[in-house]
Amino acid sequence: MSNNQTQIQNQVAKLEKNLQVMKDLNSTETMQVNSVMEAMKSKLIRDATDQELASKFSVIYFMIGLRPQHIPNPEESKALFAYVRTTYPLRTLDELWLAFKNYVEQKYCEDVKFYDQFTLINFNMIMNAYRQYVNDLNSKLREVKPPVQDVDYSKEEDIKEFLQKTNLTTKNLLLIPVYMFDIMEELGYINQSETDKIILFRTATDIYEAKLRKDAEYFDKFAIGKLNRFLKEKQDNFENIDDITVNEVKTIYKRLSCLNENKKYQRSINSTTKA
Questions:
Q1: Which range marks the domain in which residue 220 is found?
Q2: Angle subtended by helix axes 74-87 and 50-63, to nearest 10
């Protein structure tokens, strides 16, 4: 048995010990923890065959209302399965299903729409939301009777998994979950000087403006109005910047900060390999 499989089984065992704590939770929360616990017992995604993944994704396509003509073809499916194995190796097949079950039940990602097209960006947003969902359940358990072991992987494992990703760039920042910044900062992975922060916030502002300009290209009245408001705020040196703009720029800043740490890690690995 591999170390990762042993780790998963240990997590399930710890969770089962915590069932006595759940009697103090409401029935909905108890059901949620039970569903995660059961899902974690299934086969790891990295060990799943293409046929097993295809079976699970066929259910997901039905759940999100994807019409047959828009289901990924065999070549696209092969690429999808390879991506999923690499990106979420320690998730399980049933967790994959549970993540989308929660989505269609509107437990998270209500703003994510597939519009009859399955995209990796939406897929990752749902999987990241599922991870946060499980972390929130952990917090509930700790509030009832601390200390309680995590249902999900430890924060260190989350960070380790994130740093090992090799496909992240400024063009796909949405693949980076915002909460990753919080746990990386909490555990000391992110230590920025004031100069670093200023540079990253400026970059985040530029990315935000570029996004607004791109959205406005489609002549959407809302997008054009949003761009004009931002340009007015920029002209006034952001003295009267609204909270929505602040939060959106801050979200980009957090993702950029995580991306920086990811790239630092990748560079250190490459330099070690060459040495």
A1: 194-274
A2: 100
Joined tokens for residue 236: 């006034």
Q: Is the peptide bond before 147 cis (omega within 30 degrees of 0)?
A: yes
Number of Cβ within 10 Å of residue 87's Cβ equals 18
φ, ψ for residue 79 (rounded to 5)? -65, -40
Nearest to 37 by CA among 5, 10, 6: 10
Among left, alpha and beta (phi > 0; psi -120 to 50; other), residue 238 is left
Please state the domain count of the chain: 2
**Same-domain check for residues 149 and 227:** no
pLDDT by position in tens, the chain (length 275)? 566 666 666 666 655 555 554 555 556 667 777 788 888 888 989 889 999 999 999 999 999 999 989 999 999 999 999 889 888 888 899 999 999 999 999 999 988 888 888 988 899 999 989 988 887 877 666 555 443 344 445 677 788 888 888 888 998 888 888 888 988 998 888 988 899 999 999 999 999 999 999 888 887 788 898 899 899 888 888 888 888 888 899 999 999 999 999 999 888 887 766 65
